Amino acid sequence: MFDDLRDLYQEVILDHGRRPRNFRRLEDADRTARGDNPMCGDRLELFLKLAPDGSIAEAAFQGRGCAISTASASLMTETVTGKSAAQAHALSDQFRALAMTGSCPDCGEALSEEMERLQPLSGVHEFPSRVKCATLAWHTLNAALDGAKEASSE
Amino acid sequence: MFDDLRDLYQEVILDHGRRPRNFRRLEDADRTARGDNPMCGDRLELFLKLAPDGSIAEAAFQGRGCAISTASASLMTETVTGKSAAQAHALSDQFRALAMTGSCPDCGEALSEEMERLQPLSGVHEFPSRVKCATLAWHTLNAALDGAKEASSE
Amino acid sequence: MSFDVARIRADFPILQRKIRGKPLVFLDSGASAQKPRQVIEAMVRCMEARYANVHRGAYFLSEAATEAYEAARAAVARFIHAGDPREVIFTGNSTAAINLVAHSWGRGVLQPGQAVLVSEMEHHANLVPWQMLRDEGRGIELRVARVTDAGELDLEDVAAKLTDGKVGLVAITHMSNVLGTVTPAERLVRMAHAAGAKILFDGSQAAVHRPIDMQALGADFYAFTGHKLYGPTGIGVLWARLEHQERMPPFMGGGDMISLVTLDRVEWAPPPAKFEAGTPPIVEAVGLHAAIDYVSAIGMPAIEAHERRLVDHAMRRLSDIEGLALLGHAQDRGGVFAFSLDKAHAHDLATLLDRAGIAVRAGRHCAEPLHARFGVEAGTVRASFGLYTTEGEVDYLAEALTKARAFFA
Amino acid sequence: MSFDVARIRADFPILQRKIRGKPLVFLDSGASAQKPRQVIEAMVRCMEARYANVHRGAYFLSEAATEAYEAARAAVARFIHAGDPREVIFTGNSTAAINLVAHSWGRGVLQPGQAVLVSEMEHHANLVPWQMLRDEGRGIELRVARVTDAGELDLEDVAAKLTDGKVGLVAITHMSNVLGTVTPAERLVRMAHAAGAKILFDGSQAAVHRPIDMQALGADFYAFTGHKLYGPTGIGVLWARLEHQERMPPFMGGGDMISLVTLDRVEWAPPPAKFEAGTPPIVEAVGLHAAIDYVSAIGMPAIEAHERRLVDHAMRRLSDIEGLALLGHAQDRGGVFAFSLDKAHAHDLATLLDRAGIAVRAGRHCAEPLHARFGVEAGTVRASFGLYTTEGEVDYLAEALTKARAFFA
Ligand SMILES: Cc1ncc(COP(=O)(O)O)c(C=O)c1O
Ligand SMILES: Cc1ncc(COP(=O)(O)O)c(C=O)c1O
Predict the structure, then answer these.
(1) Of the candidates A86, A71, A153, the residue with the CA atom closest to the CA atom of residue A119
(2) Which part of the chain is the Aminotransferase class V domain (chains C, D) (predicted)?
(3) Has residue C355 been placed in a domain?
């Protein structure tokens, strides 16, 4: 019945969906932002601690969401740790292209190691109504980096 | 091109349309009423003088309208002169049936002399949007007899 | 006429489709129903042979279109047992019908200091217009009747909120689009009228599932929508008593709703034209007429009976599923089921079901306060039935839910 | 692509019809246009294979319907050269589009003491909503710019009525549905903006007859209607700059126009969803998309050129007819002709023409003040062209008018 669903719900997504990494509040965060997807009621709060050079020292999140948005947020916090703001923004652009089209034209010949890790989420592009689940965390990341308080993926 | 139009625009209608009878204001009318057909802008004013027994001694009208509404008003004023209010109401009902359906089930076997005279207007029933042109004068007659000031065939 | 669901299904071209290689199991009729070929063909015939703008046209096609449009009004009137076709106002959808009442009757007749009473189970269409009226600062209060844990309207709370006589309008759903609950309409009419209030029903769901009788019901306003009744989008209905229409100022201004216009002065056309500004949904009215003919030929009582069997069957099958929590279990209910499944988020579940060819809705179904009331802010999955739904489809849904739970476990 | 009117006519099933035994000569496209099979088929395909309610549906058919609905929005945006598809709001018709501006922008943004400037040649759809606003007692004034004897907008009068800076909105037709006059839109935009006013165009007629470019025009609001553009009934368009949409309170409340609802509080969805409450005209949007594709494939410039030839031809033929008085003779005009004939009342004339298979309209064409302005309260006959109109049809009309005059003489 669901044989062909493994393209969307790959094991790594189910795993991160069930047991999200960095799922906690950072009390001493330098940046926080809230993300809302009013369509499906998903919401998350993102916390960033910045290193003296402005790069992301630590990233964590809390909230409620479907497997895809939770897994995406979980994978994101892992991926952006240690990155500069510019690098994180670039990853965000690349990831959103991947989620919307299934591929990433700006990524060059080979995917970066980071994009390889996010690759399992690319199946979402076949489900237009779910793309926003996958991108919510990244919208929120942009908002946090830009100093905004809220992001919406409506 | 218009050969088959003689069913609607019979000679008597064209004639009454061009040279309406009793087309004047009765300054000493006992009853007057205005009729409006907002759809096509036709309007007429009806004047009645009543005999001591309440019957219609004289009927006249003024206003603007298409050939059908003018002819209908003209023929009506001729037909109702000398009639009691009850007779005029009955004629009004019969005429409206004639205009809407092309026949008059309540008229009995033979048409009354009055209905014979109105018969040329029966062709209007094939033109739903024109029925109101033919009935405007009769609506206004009912209003005048009932002591109302305005009638509308919207 | 006996209810032959296979023959009915053959009337719906879309039900012959495969979705991702699987037969379509369409369980989202509560959001919008599919259209039988009779409706599609009526619209095509109108556009191919009998189309022109209605009213004011003194030529054959315009007369034919006007006749068809007014025949649709008469068909709606017969369908809901209205006393007079003029009680039927065509709008764009239910939402527009309710907004018409809120704008026109709400601003023109309801007085400052009066209140509107809605319930916790309203669709946003019957909540937001009244919130907007409240928030305009004209002194209109909004009261909200509670829903019980069983998902029924709390009639004691309704009574309590009516006692001070300040409620000018009760605006309440006739059937919840989430809980499936059918509200006790006759009783609500008596309660409202006894308290001096008028009453409006949001019949968007109810009108589709059972016979509706305006003369027996005795309400003041009743709204429903064409696209849920197997008819086209772009058309809705407000039934409103003539005495109310007379007192209501118009909502939108334009052509066909006036009887006289000068630069200084306007006179409104008589009801219902007063509320139908501009070119109406002509082709859609013809489509709705065909839809009404279609369901009437089958018979609303037969449709209701079919649905009762389906509801009973679904109750049994769904309650067998481990971890499934149904929202509401009212005594009197129609074929709409909202639920959550432990282990699986509503949206993941809907996507999984979609892969199996099953169309269900996930989210809060335009009833956020109700989801808050039941503590399911994250949303539910909703399966809703139409006259073409079969027991086999319900079984297939149950099987898929069981497998989905295992998938996410 | 060259303009092949015979091939175009073959696309319109209704044009193959006979009326009372005579070929249909449809000269009422200004009231509503006929539909090509491409539009009819697109609607059928939508209902047979790609239908479900849009938005919020996480399953295949709903995604497909949502995609089709939003693709229609994008197509409209391209058609009128909007800067952003979000500037396109779907409504039920032009009338609803203009009422949306009057209700929301007129009540929410326009200030007491400000004025709205319309003209004597407005269709009731762009007059009555502003009269209703004036008559609400909120201190909004209504000014009416004069029309010259030639049937053109009196620009000096417009300038005079703008000088005191009190006008907040100029609401004016882009093409008169009676006189055929095309107003100098770019110039009006400059005049309005220089006087500190916003400007709305009623483009119901203009958008059908020539290319429309929102970016070049620089207006604030632009309204038009699907059924005159060879598309379905039940759908209209309001183009509105995003900055205006942001400041406008919503018009109707309901589903899909909110981003958050609690019992106490509502947050509106971003534009344009904020103005599209409830289930939108989904099938109609698909039909409108097909209509836009249809006229775009022919090319609006080609359609305009065809119509210019027809207009020139009609001017020659009609001015040859004894006793015929044309209403207006503007320099810049489209294919709409209103006239009276001595000896014959407009309604009698229309009935006569109908007998010859010719569909024309008689009356005041929802423009009573304009008919009063020209002293023709009893109404006129109006012939209006579409892209399928031929010179032969114009000749046939002229011949019929000559014979009709003799008939009534
Ligand atoms: C100039 C003009 N404005 C507005 C309208 C109203 O359009 P609709 O009836 O589609 O709302 C029309 C058509 O009747 C028109 O010609
Ligand atoms: C109970 C209820 N009310 C109102 C509506 C709104 O109907 P529409 O979207 O056609 O205006 C719906 C459907 O979505 C509904 O289920």
Answers:
(1) A71
(2) 25-397
(3) yes
Cα separation, D287 vs D234, in Å, equals 10
CA–centroid distance, D179 to ligand 1, in Å, is: 14
**Distance (Å, whole) CA C322 – CA D392:** 74
Report the b/e string of C216-249 with b at 16+ CB within 10 A: ebebbbbbbbbbbbbbbbbbbbbbbbeebbeebb
Of D349, D228, D279, D351, nearest to D52 by C-alpha is D279
Q: How many whole angstroms separate alpha carbon C155 and alpha carbon C148?
A: 9
**Which chain C residues are closer than 8 Å to A64 by Cβ?**
377-378
User: Distances from the Cα of C204 to the Cαs of C10, C178, C220, C236, in angstroms?
Assistant: 25, 12, 16, 9
Which of D347, D355, D365, D407 to mutate to test binding with chain B, by most B CBs within 10 Å of its CB? D347
Find out whether the peptide bond into C301 is cis, omega within 30 degrees of 0. no
Residue B151 · residue B142 · CB < 8 Å: yes
**Is C36 domain-assigned?**
no
For chain B, which chains pass the contact test of at least 3 CB pairs under 8 Å? C, D
Query: Would you give the DSSP letter of residue B122?
Result: G
Give CA–CA dist D110/D108, Å, rounded. 6
DSSP for residue D228: G
Q: Are residues C136 and C221 in the same domain?
A: yes
For residue C362, being part of any structural domain is answered with yes
For the full predicted model, state whether its pTM sits above 0.80.
yes
Instruction: CATH number of the domain at D248, please.
Output: 3.40.640.10
Q: Which two tokens stand for residue C339?
A: 């639920």
* Domains of chain B listed by start with CATH number: 2-148 (3.90.1010.10)
What's the CA angle centered on C405, arms C400 and C406, to 5 degrees?
100
Q: How distant, in Å, are the alpha carbons of B6, B73, D402 from that of B13?
A: 10, 11, 20
Tell me if ipTM is over 0.90. yes
> Tokens 């295949």 sit at which residue?
D60
Q: What does the DSSP assignment read for D180-216?
A: -BBP-HHHHHHHHHHTT-EEEEE-TTHHHHS---HHH
DSSP type of residue C88: E
Which residue range forms the structural domain that includes residue D114? 41-296
- Distance between Cα D252 and ligand 2 center (Å): 13
Task: Tell me how many residue pairs between chain A and chain C have CB atoms under 8 A apart.
Answer: 57
Residues in chain B closer than 8 A to D408 (CB atoms): 14, 18, 67
CB A41: neighbour CB atoms within 10 A? 24
Both tokens assigned to D352: 């006569």
Say whether B40 and D407 touch across the interface (CB within 8 A). Answer: no
Active site residue C46: no
Pick B38's closest partner by Cβ from C59, C66, C259: C259
Whose structure tokens read 């004016």?
A: D172
Digit-by-digit pLDDT tens for chain C (409 residues) are 568 999 999 999 999 999 888 999 999 999 999 999 999 999 999 999 999 999 877 899 999 999 999 999 999 999 999 999 999 999 999 999 999 999 999 999 999 999 999 999 999 999 999 999 999 999 999 999 999 999 999 999 999 999 999 999 999 999 999 999 999 999 999 999 999 999 999 999 999 999 999 999 999 999 999 999 999 999 999 999 999 999 999 999 999 898 889 999 999 999 999 999 999 999 999 999 999 999 999 999 999 999 999 999 999 999 999 999 999 999 999 999 999 999 899 999 999 999 899 999 999 999 999 999 999 988 999 999 999 999 999 999 999 999 999 998 8
CB contact under 8 A, D40 and C48: yes
List chains touching D (3+ CB pairs under 8 A).
A, B, C
A39 and A154 Cβ atoms separated by less than 8 Å: yes
Expressed in angstroms and rounded, the spacing between residue C93 Cα and the centre of ligand 2 is 8
Instruction: Note whether C249 and C317 are same-domain residues.
Output: no
Asked if residue D36 is part of any domain, the answer here is no
